[in-house]
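Lab notebook, bench 4. The sequencing result for the construct came back, and we need a structural model before the next group meeting so we can plan mutations. Quick request posted to the team channel:

Model the 3D structure of this chain.
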Amino acid sequence: MDNTEFKKLIQFAMDKEEEAAAFYRDCSERASHKEMKETFIRMAGEEEGHKSKIERFNRENIETGALKKIPNLKISDYLLDMTFRPNMNYAELLVLAMKREEKAHTMYTDLAGQVDDPSVSKLFQTLAQEELKHKLRLETEYDDEVQKEN
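Done. Here's the predicted structure in token form:
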């Protein structure tokens, strides 16, 4: 992978993380539930942390440790996509966030498989893992708070 292609991929990933952070900040401002406001603020901060990780990425100094296996409850796999509305209820906000994290995980997994540079692939695998952690947290909350009501 040449340096120009590398820089484009890195910029693409940083743009996606900034977009995700902006989305969660916007959701926080519009959400009517206090707990979701706090969740979205926390997730915006984590997405900003991902962007910082990408900015600091150095091909020569990529972590060589094994990736951890993150459970995938697959709850979002069986739910429909949604568009944000200011009056969404708690369950709908959780579904919206889960679907976004699911797509981010898929994007980074796909990118990891498409690059020929092992260090860049490892970066994308690590980011995919981070997005799966977010998805797990949201799916667990959905399972604990929404499914038990039904």
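The two ends are 50 Å apart (CA to CA).
Will bring this to the meeting.
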